[in-house]
Amino acid sequence: MPPPSLQAPAAVAMVRPHHFHPNPETAADNAFQRPATAASVATQAHAEVTEAAATLEAAGVRVHLFDSHDPVTPDAVFPNNWFSTHAGGHVALYPMYAANRRRERRGDIVEMLKARYRVQDVIDYSGLEHDGMALEGTGAMVLDHIGRIAYTAQSHRADPVALERFCTHFNFEPMAFATADAQGRPCYHTNVMLCVGTDFALGGFHLIADPLRREAVRARRRESGRDVIELDAH
Questions:
Q1: DSSP code for 200
Q2: How far apart are CA 178 and CA 227, in angstroms?
Q3: Quick one: DSSP state of residue 193?
Q4: DSSP 190
Q5: Could you report the per-residue pLDDT of 137-195, keeping only the tens digit for each?
Q6: What is the largest CA-CA distance in the chain?
Q7: Strand order from edge to edge, sheet including 121-124
Q8: What number does CATH give the domain 11-230?
Q9: CA quadruple 1, 80, 200, 52: dihedral positive or negative?
Q10: What phi and psi values does residue 177 have, to the nearest 5 degrees?
Q11: Disulfide engineering: 90 pairs with which of 13, 56, 86, 198, CB 3.0-4.6 Å?
């Protein structure tokens, strides 16, 4: 097993999709989605997740692999959007923006966590959906577990009230910022432009719209002592 790390866990939960395809309920604000043949994309996604799980296991990471057979949850492969785990045995469940993504939450995954690990509590924010709020887990937030910072690109999927509640409960400092690509479209999730590892951080900092905020995020990354790798538009 890899050595314990607050930032890089020794075990992961993965969901292998059987019906992965572009999601019409999320296409409006996800510029990465493209029209595709459902069958071919589903086959490729299934194979890629299978390979990723095997690669992680070969590297010594414990993998809890679940399968998703529900045809109306094409994004089930991204379970980090609806739950996260935290040191001390805490689990968070998140409110989702699209109605069909709310069906991705699975009791069997939560029960597995309780059976295999010392889960002290489950903090469920999903009720915020009734108030029109979303906070899609570690897609909406990129968490620096060591520096206790929640980097968050502002979007429909990262409600500021929900973000404040999470940060208060889990002792993170929220660091939110507006983003825009070359066409002026915001990033729908923070983790498509920022990654924080144990010893390094990747960032598409050019996507942060405000220059002062961009430099502030860069500075926080440098202060962490990690190697900062800048990603460009190409």
A1: E
A2: 24
A3: T
A4: G
A5: 999 999 999 999 999 999 999 999 999 999 999 999 999 999 999 899 999 999 999 99
A6: 47
A7: 83-86, 90-93, 121-124
A8: 3.75.10.10
A9: positive
A10: -155, 150
A11: 86
* Residue with the two structure tokens 């999903």: 126
Beta partners for residue 66, in sequence order: 15
23 contacts 75 by C-beta, under 8 angstroms: yes
With residue 151 as reference, give the H or E element that holds it.
Answer: strand 149-153
Three-state SS at 77: coil
N residues, the chain:
234
pLDDT at 196 exceeding the cut of 70: yes
Cα separation of 70 and 75, whole Å? 10
pLDDT-above-90 percentage for the chain: 84
* Tens digit of each residue's pLDDT (9 = 90 or more) over 16-39: 999 998 887 786 777 666 666 667
Burial of 86 (0-12, 13-18, 19+ CB in 10 A): middle
214 close to 194: Cβ distance less than 8 angstroms: no
Please give the Cα distance from 129 to 95 (Å, whole number).
Answer: 5
Q: Pairing between strand 90-93 and 121-124?
A: parallel
